[in-house]
Design goal:
Bound molecules: fe (ii) ion
Number of helices: 13
Distance between the termini: 42 Å
Shape: globular
Largest sheet: 8 strands, parallel
Order of helices and strands: EEEEEHHEHEHEHEHEHEHHEHHHEHEE
Structural class: alpha/beta
Length: 414
């Protein structure tokens, strides 16, 4: 199949993408591709082609567990609901709810999701459910699963054992939550435990790290230092790190030294942290996000996640990564034209790097996985909220959309 006349990743020149046997076999300027049989050709007519969206942070065990009409929309109401609800879930209910959220994202061009699954319950029902769903949906989406100790590694009895059990069951990554541990000593020790376990098992790490406005929260420095010493920074992710939005510039300057050396990845979750953080503030109110621009400019890898979809912590969300970027750019003061144009990286290539994906990207030899948007470049995609017209995976169209058409009916004006 030849997908003709595409603007690949904001390029100014039109290209044709030839796929065969589920792979991209040729990418060439449009005027240099021989015309083929019409039923082997799709004319994209100057639309933007990107590698598929990556949602690098999503909680699929909590999604659709609460009626949005009951949501109080705060961190504390979310925790209170979840800690009383989580023991009542069944494998069937987790799979049904998670599938709803995954399919909503797939319809919007997402093909890779890293999901965090709470391992605090005595029975790992949600973990079993998500592992099964991962296998069932692998043709349309790659799920990567983090064993997430919602109430701490050391501060919640049995969580070390449950993380290790989850890894043996098939979980891909070790989670952590240093700012929720009882003491700062526990916080540092929990990060050492996670890094040692990753070295021993070869698994990835993704920590809910300093998701607080407390400017004395120091999980990140421990995680980065231990990752640096172990030489595994590229397999380690610090999610949220919202405390960095409250650190003094002097401390951030010191911290940046170990962050840059460690080469760990970062995930910001603009929609959710913009509304969850700053709740202790009267005025001025903090934005509650990590330092996206500063980390990016220091050469560190930052991606964006949806985090929550209609769950106890967030009553909205549908897996639309353009919406996530749109909000993130506003919250992070990244509204220069070039910031907007290149912001697709937060939900594509940067996310792929965080997830340690191989063979990702619109390039010859890679799997024929890409999306086509109803626009010519990503500036237009963000400002006009362009639809994902096609999501193509292994050369097959797995999702498509009909663009919205608006018509002016004001007679006599035009
Ligand atoms: Fe999260």
């Amino acid at each position: 199949m030849i997908y003709r006349n595409a603007y690949i990743e904001n390029q100014k020149q039109l290209s044709d993408i030839t796929t065969e046997g589920g792979r991209i076999v040729r990418i060439a300027p449009s005027d240099q591709t021989a015309t083929k049989n019409a039923n082997e050709t799709v004319d994209l007519g100057g639309k933007l082609v990107l590698p598929p969206f990556v949602d690098s942070h999503l909680h699929l065990d909590t999604t659709h567990t609460v009626d949005p009409a009951e949501s109080r929309g705060t961190l504390w109401s979310g925790i209170a609901f979840w800690s009383s609800y989580r023991d009542t879930v069944t494998k069937k209910s987790v799979k049904e709810n998670a599938k709803k959220a995954v399919l909503s994202a797939v319809l919007r061009g997402v093909q890779h999701i890293r999901t965090h699954v709470d391992i605090c319950p005595a029975r790992l029902t949600a973990m079993e459910a998500l592992l099964e769903l991962k296998d069932e949906l692998k043709k349309i989406v790659g799920l990567q699963i983090v064993a997430f100790p919602q109430e701490g590694i050391l501060s919640y009895p049995g969580n070390k054992e449950r993380i290790e059990t989850a890894l043996k069951m098939g979980a891909d990554a070790i989670g952590g939550v240093p700012h929720y541990e009882y003491t700062r000593e526990y916080a540092a020790e929990s990060m050492k435990y996670a890094v040692d376990l990753a070295v021993k098992t070869g698994k990835l790490i993704d920590v809910h790290c300093d998701e607080t406005d407390d400017d004395s929260s120091r999980g990140l420095e421990s995680l980065a230092a231990f990752a640096l010493e172990a030489g595994i920074g590229d397999r380690v992710t610090a999610s949220h790190t919202t405390a960095a939005g409250s650190y003094s510039d002097a401390y951030m300057n010191r911290l940046m030294r170990v962050l840059v050396k460690s080469k760990i990845n970062f995930v910001a979750n603009p929609l959710v942290n913009l509304h969850l953080q700053g709740r202790f503030d009267t005025f001025p109110k903090r934005r509650g996000l990590t330092r996206v621009r500063e980390l990016t400019e220091a050469g560190l890898n930052v991606s964006f996640g949806q985090d929550d979809v209609k769950d106890p912590w967030y009553p909205m969300g549908n897996g639309d990564m353009i919406n996530v970027v749109h909000t993130g750019l506003h919250a992070c003061h990244m509204t220069a034209y070039d910031d907007i144009l290149s912001s697709y990286k937060f939900v594509t290539v940067n996310g792929a790097k965080t997830l340690n994906l191989r063979g990702y990207g619109v390039a010859e030899g890679n799997p024929a996985d890409f999306i086509v948007l109803n626009c010519a470049d990503f500036y237009e995609a963000v400002s006009e909220r362009a639809e994902v017209l096609y999501s193509i995976r292994n050369g097959e169209i797995i999702a498509s959309a009909t663009p919205c058409r608006r018509t002016l009916k004001a007679a006599g004006l035009f």
